[in-house]
Automatic annotation (TrEMBL):
Pfam families attached to this UniProt entry: MerR_1
Domain of life: Bacteria
Protein's name according to its UniProt entry: MerR family transcriptional regulator
Species assigned in the record: Streptomyces albireticuli
Keyword DNA-binding recorded: yes
Stretches assigned to the HTH merR-type domain: 1-68
TM ranges: none
UniProt KW keywords: DNA-binding
GO molecular function, one term: DNA-binding transcription factor activity
Length: 132
């Protein structure tokens, strides 16, 4: 598939796909006319790259990680190293801390919303004149 098709199917801009290629995150074959040509595998690769970026990893770390991920056929990669596993464990722990912090922040906001809502109900009730 061409770059436009990959962009459409993955939801990532053509510009980002070209960037991924320069960073070693994605590779394309070239047609005799020089156009990029991708296999079906590229959609899954781009989705993985996007997920790793969303997790806070940078392109250098993603480039080191991608060869260690399972291939489309489910076979294990032979390029994983103990150092990379340690780095990835550290990243996972960082993400878990972020999740804990976000849950705590949500709880604080929930409490503030509940308190503010109760205050609004009290104010609204006292603003209504009593019927005689």
């Amino acid at each position: 598939m061409r770059i436009g098709e990959l962009a459409r199917r993955s939801g990532v801009s053509e510009r980002s796909l070209r960037y991924y290629e320069t960073q070693g995150l994605l590779r394309a074959e070239r047609t005799p006319g020089g156009q990029r040509q991708y296999g079906e595998w590229a959609v899954d690769r781009v989705v993985r790259v996007q997920a790793l970026y969303a997790a806070g990893l940078n392109s250098k770390k993603i480039a080191r990680l991608l060869p260690c991920m399972r291939d489309a056929d489910g076979g294990p990669s032979e390029k994983a190293t103990p150092l990379l596993v340690t780095e990835l464990t550290t990243e996972r722990d960082r993400i878990n801390r972020m999740i804990t912090d976000l849950v705590r922040s949500r709880e604080v906001l929930d409490e503030a919303i509940t308190t503010a809502s109760a205050g609004m109900e009290t104010s609204a009730a006292s603003a209504v004149p009593a019927l005689r």
